[in-house]
Automatic annotation (TrEMBL):
TM segment ranges: 20-39, 70-90, 102-127, 189-210, 222-243
Record lineage: Eukaryota, Viridiplantae, Streptophyta, Embryophyta, Tracheophyta
Organism of this sequence: Trapa natans (Water chestnut)
Membrane topology summary: Multi-pass membrane protein
Entry's Gene Ontology BP terms: autophagosome assembly
Protein name per its UniProtKB record: VTT domain-containing protein
Top-level lineage group: Eukaryota
Chief place where the protein resides: membrane
Pfam family, one: VTT_dom
Keyword Protein transport: no
């Protein structure tokens, strides 16, 4: 028993759990390989996860030509990359949201971002359900205690609270995705709050992607008016929870 505890503290996943995570990783790699094999022979060295606005503009310029001729491959490749990043909590999805606006416009871009962000969040939710408990305790012990207490306190109107978290930057989305199954947030509540709650931020980011050349930094996305609007929407979503608590 003591040996098992020591092994768990050094490497928080059992071999079976680690194998499951590797299997998920390989499935994403297989999907990307399938997209690559259906594309024409060319130099794809420009294909990398953007880390700066300059990287993103280069990627946008190179992909615009492929988007019209190989729309399905670009869409599938985009979805796989975005869902992969969400599943494994890789930073940079804001650049992918900007790219959606630059390549597909506002309405198609928002629909694409909400779909891929929800699919990625769901994938992260179920991956965490399988392997997440020791990881989340290692990475975010204090946040987890706070989140667990809030979920328990707001169980009767949990959807409103989850919507509030999605709309406002109270807790990071990566943490919400990974910790929700650990604190027993039902999947249907998680799913609905994700689909609806991500729309405002997705709209702001995708719309900014259309005028990508005018952005000087990622900070330009969220000016005072945008943040105030998101908090206002968040207050509206959580109001029924507060009112219900006072009535009871």
């Amino acid at each position: 028993m003591e040996d098992n505890f020591r092994l768990r503290s050094k490497f928080p996943l059992y071999p079976r759990e680690a194998a499951g995570a590797v299997l998920v990783l390989l499935s994403f790699a297989s999907g990307l390989l399938g997209v690559y094999l259906t594309m024409p022979a060319s130099d794809y060295s420009f294909l990398k996860l953007p880390r700066t606005l300059d990287d993103l503009q280069i990627l946008r310029d190179r992909l615009e030509g492929y988007t019209s001729d190989y729309t399905l491959q670009v869409l599938v490749g985009y979805c796989i990359v975005y869902i992969f990043m969400q599943t494994f909590m890789i930073p940079g999805t804001v650049f992918m949201s900007l790219l959606a606006g630059a390549l597909f416009g506002v309405f198609k871009g928002v629909a694409l971002v909400v779909f891929t962000a929800t699919a990625g969040a769901s994938s992260c939710y179920f991956l965490s359900k399988m392997i997440g408990r020791p990881i989340v305790f290692c990475l975010w012990p204090d946040k987890l205690i706070f989140f667990q207490a809030q979920v328990a306190k707001r169980r009767r109107r949990l959807l409103n609270y989850m919507l509030f978290l999605r709309v406002t930057p109270t807790l990071p989305n990566t943490f919400i995705n990974f910790a929700s199954p650990i604190v027993d947030v039902p999947y249907h509540t998680f799913f609905l709050s994700t689909v609806v709650g991500l729309i405002p931020a997705a709209f702001v980011t995708v719309r900014a992607g259309i005028a990508l050349g005018e952005l000087q930094s990622i900070g330009d996305l969220y000016d005072f008016q945008s943040i105030a609007a998101l908090f206002f929407i968040g207050v509206i979503t959580v109001t029924p929870t507060v009112m219900g608590k006072h009535r009871s």
